[in-house]
Design a protein that fits this description.
The protein is an alpha+beta fold. About 40% of the residues lie in helices and about 20% in strands.
């Protein structure tokens, strides 16, 4: 049985809301992800493990630091 924490880490990214400033539309256009409010000031990006990996690379290329 897979570890739930590991599975969650491969299907979501949690970032401060400001981290997607100026790139959110492009992220949503290029990848099959959902972006939803999480905690105050944060967003959760949810998608398949493949989409999350590619979205992470996209974010890195745009200077977004991932936790």
């Amino acid at each position: 049985m897979p570890d739930p924490a590991r599975l969650r880490d491969s299907t979501q990214i949690v970032l401060p809301r400001d981290a997607l400033s100026g790139i959110r539309r492009e992220l949503e256009r290029q990848f099959m992800v959902s972006i939803i409010p999480f905690e105050e000031g944060y967003l959760r990006i949810i998608g398949s493990p493949i989409e999350i990996k590619q979205a992470s690379q996209f974010l890195g290329r745009h200077g977004v630091s991932l936790p």
